[in-house]
Amino acid sequence: MKFLKVFKEIWEMEELRDRILYTLLMIGIFRLGAHVVLPGVDAIKLAAMVGNSSQEGSPLGLLDMFSGGAFNRASIFALGIMPYITASIVIQLMGMTVPYFQKLQKEGESGRRELNNITRSLTILVCIAQSFGYITFLRYSYSSAIVDEMPALIFSASTIIVLTSCTVFLMWLGEKITDKGIGNGISLLIMIGIIASLPTEFLNELKNKGMYSSESGPQLLPFLIEMIILFGIFLVSIALIQAIRRIPVNYAKKVMSGESVVGGTREYIPLKVNAAGVMPIIFAQALMFLPGMMGQFVPESMESMSGLMASFSDFTSVPYNITQFILVILFTYFYTAILFNPKQMSDDLKKSNAFIPGVRPGTDTANFIDKIMSRILLPGSIFLGLITIIPGIAAELGVQRGFAYFFGGTSLLILVGVVLDTIQQIDSYLLMRHYDSLSRTGRKRPRQNNSPISTPSAL
Fold first, then answer.
1. Is residue 25 scored above 90 in pLDDT?
2. Are strands 212-213 and 254-256 parallel, antiparallel or unpaired?
3. What is the pLDDT of residue 337?
4. CA torsion angle for 15, 21, 23, 26 (degrees, to 10)?
5. In a designed cystine with 181, which of 177, 354, 439, 442 is the match (CB 3.0 to 4.6 A)?
6. Which domains are assigned to the chain?
7. Which H/E stretch holds residue 236?
């Protein structure tokens, strides 16, 4: 009943309803374009070849999941929004190390617009580079699906233009969702691409575990156990994303204009346990692609070395999971060190006449904040590493590989993070409506002591 009541309030709020409908319309366009095949590709032959091939557990299978299946369909949205994410990460890292980008970050709105323009330009360059790689993938994996009558030069040129244009269109689509819809548009497009295959994989897992088999009988209990474990993983992921360590901060009192006193309040500095977000996993998975690619160039005489490198293409192998677990922990510390600056926080507190109780301002405050962050970062990085390797463990325990991706890793953290952010925005609209409703319906207090001036309306 409470859910239905909230849903009714959302529908009755015109602005929020229009934003949600606009967001759903943009998502519908995104999903429709994911099924439009590139010019020069035979859709019927391609569908038959995709149905006979399996890339689950490989890096290409992971890319296909992030693009919502558009990668293997040779869709016009095959590259998805990932080139823009790559460009944004590069600009963000340069903003922490290059003085020119640091200057732009401090220039306010004008600097932000300039950084956005640089990010868009870099996105186009990334799209062109990735388009060459995608053309090579099509010719290597689905060469018979390419129309013979189309010259190779024309096919390559048209594919590069279409893929780049459609990625720029998705970038524009995400910005429109952010402006006129609900939630962060780019994040929503990534999430929709991830969950696009969830219904199919869920039905496949249900068919594999929940239906009757003539040999082994009913397998519904293992499926229910899987769902309980998946629900628990979601709860742990939510706790990891929202967990913070609060450091108390006191503000010094100031006497302003006579007897008025300003300050003297206590606030908190929230330090997130997972301050790096999903970036360590993205960096780690990017490096995990390299051993598998290098294994293809190892001579056949070195079978042991070739087999070891080939194992890095299987996300269920022991070397893959151990290496990825270590890389996630290392990248968590690395990215947090770049993102988090205790000295700057200490200087900001000093400028605001604020101090941490029992800690001297300046260097001692910076060391104290760095010490607290280091303590909470260790368990946070370990939990993040465990979430990363859960899909491989789940696949080894009998979960289908396509469905095992949703048990952890980047897909789970993005899904949970985007859903929480969208729900918070919806809650803010509902809370604003409640305050407006109280303001409109509030009654005036009766006059007291025959005062000619009435008191303000009660909120």
1. yes
2. unpaired
3. 82
4. -140
5. 177
6. 22-196 (1.10.3370.10), 199-440 (1.10.3370.10)
7. helix 220-242
* Residue 420 structure tokens: 């929480």
Three-point CA angle 387, 392, 398, nearest 5°: 120
Structure confidence at residue 255 (pLDDT): 58
Q: Please determine, for residue 432, whether its predicted confidence score (pLDDT) is greater than 70.
A: yes
| CA-wise closest residue to 272 among 177, 353, 366, 379 | 379
The whole-chain average pLDDT of the chain stands at 78
Where are the alpha helices (H) located in 38-144, listed in sequence order? 43-52, 59-66, 82-97, 99-105, 109-141
The string of DSSP letters for 237-282 reads HHHHHH-EEEEEEEE--EEETTTEEE---EEEEEEETTTTTTHHHH
Cα three-residue angle 265-266-267, rounded to 5 degrees: 120
Measured between alpha carbons, how far is 118 from 141 in angstroms, rounded to an integer?
A: 34
Angle, CA of 430, 435 and 438, to the nearest 5°: 125
**CA–CA distance from 391 to each of 59, 210, 224, 316 (Å)?**
14, 20, 17, 8
**Cα separation of 435 and 459, whole Å?**
8
